[in-house]
Amino acid sequence: MLLDARQPDAIAAAAARLAAGELLALPTETVYGLGARADDDAAVAKIFAAKGRPADHPLIVHVADAADAELFAAELPPVARRLMAAFWPGPLTVIVPRKPGVGAAAAGGQDTIGLRCPAHPVARDLLIAARALGVAGVAAPSANRFGRVSPTQARHVVDEFEPGLWVLDGGDCEVGIESSIVDCSRAHPVLLRPGVLTPEEIAAAAGEPLRAPDAQAPRASGTLVAHYAPRAVVRLYDTEALRQALAESGSGGRLAGGLAVYSRSVEPPQGVLSRRMPAEARAAAHELFAVLRELDGAGAAEIWIELPPLDAAWDGVRDRLSRAAAAFVGL
Ligand code: TXA
Ligand code: MG
């Protein structure tokens, strides 16, 4: 059921739904989340069931402000505080030690917890209204079935779940890919998942360089090699290889009708379904998942994508694309 967030009572009704321990899909500036109150393990269990996500994969808990992070955190290490001060509200999640006895289901049983204060005005209003009803925070993974493309429009969520799910419609997600995740629970900050913030700007705010994940780093399902998979087969090509592959397939080739192309600089042959990738990383992130869904929905059997530039601004987009493509390789 779609609930327009601009309707006068929508936020209050959605907050009451959360307070009652029900599921609610909500907009954030990154992607839509499938939310439940994080302080109620039975409510959180509904998220895992609806998503088809293994129960030991931890979720991100969304809080109304930095002060509410203390409701879930055993402690906020200085590096976490610096990152929160720099980027909250916004597309950054910190992993910190979890307060014992709180948010165990949301944390997937881990002794750490992922916390984020979202910037979307509807998410903020909702979190504040829910807080007034006693909801400490809202656990919300991306509102897609496990392993599928994350939703950036309310319609995407409706398409993915049972009709009874309440979906609070806050329009198009501005950022378009999920938050950057920084593990602050160990001696040095580790970037577990890139987003639209560059490693340089995160490191500058942290006051020290970010480490790459090692064998001890916590597992993150958004970081599984095969994830973000559309139904179509995704193939990534560098610019020349894409040009070559298109020349060889031709519009009358074996893929005629079943091929879609998403490229910054290569002009696909006439008759091939295509979308132009923006030249700027943030703009590409904004539309990436919607484009994958659109090309998938148009019935493409294969989606051929030009690799983004190598610079760090594109890390988040490159990461999502390589996982979408790996899903094919792994099958
Ligand atoms: O932008 C976002 O982060 C979106 C919106 C809805 O806020 N949420 C999102 O959630 O992407 P999800 O569940 O799809 O991805 C959360 C990621 C997973 O990879 C999970 O494993 C990791 O965060 N994560 C959460 N808590 C963790 C913890 N305590 N330790 C390690 N990883 C954690
Ligand atoms: Mg996800």
Report what the structure shows.
It catalyses: L-threonine + hydrogencarbonate + ATP = L-threonylcarbamoyladenylate + diphosphate + H2O. Its EC number is 2.7.7.87. Keywords: ATP-binding, Cytoplasm, Nucleotide-binding, Nucleotidyltransferase, Transferase, tRNA processing. The protein has 331 residues and is α/β, with parallel strands linked by helices. The protein has two domains: 2-206, Alpha-Beta Complex (DHBP synthase), CATH 3.90.870; 233-326, Threonylcarbamoyl-AMP synthase, C-terminal domain (Rossmann fold). The chain contains ten helices and 14 strands. The protein has helices spanning 10-19, 41-51, 66-69, 78-87, 121-132, 154-160, 199-206, 239-249, 281-297, 315-329; strands at residues 2-4, 24-26, 33-37, 60-62, 92-97, 112-116, 138-139, 167-169, 180-183, 190-193, 233-237, 259-263, 273-276, 302-306. Strands 2-3-7-4-6-5-9-10 form an eight-stranded mixed β-sheet, with helices on both faces. A four-stranded parallel β-sheet has the order 11-14-12-13. A two-stranded parallel sheet has the order 1-8. Helix 1 crosses helix 5 (121-132). The longest helix is centred in the C-terminal third of the chain and has 17 residues, at 281-297. Bound molecules: threonylcarbamoyladenylate (TXA) and magnesium ion (MG).
CATH class of the largest domain: Alpha Beta
- Kindly state the number of beta strands: 14
Low-confidence runs (pLDDT<50, min 5 residues)?
Answer: none
Spatial separation of the terminal alpha carbons:
34 Å
Strand content: 15-25%
Q: Report the principal-axis shape.
A: globular
